[in-house]
Amino acid sequence: MYPEYVQVGDKKYKINTSYKIALECDAISQDTSISELKRALAIIYKLFGREALYDTTNREMLLEKAFKYLLCGNEPSGEKRDVDFVKDMPYIRASFMSDYHITLNDDMHFWEFSELLNGLSNSELGNCCVFNRIRNLRNFDLSTIKDTKEREKIRKAKESVAIKKPKTMSYEQRESASAFYNEFYRKE
Q1: Same domain for 90 and 123?
Q2: Torsion on CA atoms 63, 65, 66, 72, rounded to nearest 10
Q3: Domain residues for 95?
């Protein structure tokens, strides 16, 4: 079964398990325009709610639990990031429909979403969902192509699907974060 709560000391916090919340946390963690402290607080708030946010004595433990949850209980891989959930969401939706014949629903548990995402078809023989074709293109080694015209064609395709840096949140995400920060700092 997937986790629904985290235990921190003698307190138990309900996790907002929707995959959409986890993807918002991912966007927050990648946004370098926000200070590290504000990103940490926003992630705690999004996953565990207001009560966890004000649990200042356990903030570090809550953040550790948050990242363990967001990594689906795994250790960080250290691999180069080849997914931009905002940019790739149309391809992810299409791939879930083509491979699993399901539509993503808002309350799908993040760990289930991650398992399904990792199980999408990915074969070099052509049986590959659209999302993994994009990931494969991002990771393709251009040095393996000898023909300069073909290499240039693939380079342009890679550029069109590349993950751009620095990453910032959308206007709506920034507005939501601003409202949260204003409320939090007003009450402290």
Answers
A1: yes
A2: 150
A3: 85-161
Find tokens 């969902």 and name the residue. Answer: 129
- CA–chain centroid gap for 60, Å, is 21
Residue 54: inside a domain: yes
Which pTM value belongs to this model? 0.81
Q: What is the b/e burial string over 56-74, where b = at least 16 CB atoms within 10 angstroms of the residue's CB?
A: eebbeebbebbeebbebee
Type of residue found at 120: L
Count of Cβ atoms closer than 10 Å to residue 119 Cβ: 10
Angle at 82 between CA 77 and CA 83, to 5 degrees: 105
Q: What is the pLDDT of residues 141-168, one digit of tens each?
A: 999 999 999 999 999 999 999 988 655 5
Length of the chain measured in residues: 188
Residue 143 falls inside a structural domain: yes
The CA distance from 11 to 166, in Å, is: 37
Q: State the total domains in the chain.
A: 2
- Both 61 and 89 in a single domain? no
3-state SS assignment for residue 117: helix
Determine the straight-line distance between the first and last CA of the chain, rounded to whole angstroms. 37
Residue whose structure tokens are 């939706």: 93
User: How many alpha carbons lie under 13 Å from residue 180 in its C-beta half-sphere?
Assistant: 21
Question: For residue range 86-95, what is the model confidence (pLDDT) as tens digits?
Answer: 999 999 999 9
Residue identified by tokens 């949260």 is: 180
Instruction: Name the maximum alpha-carbon separation found in the chain.
Output: 64
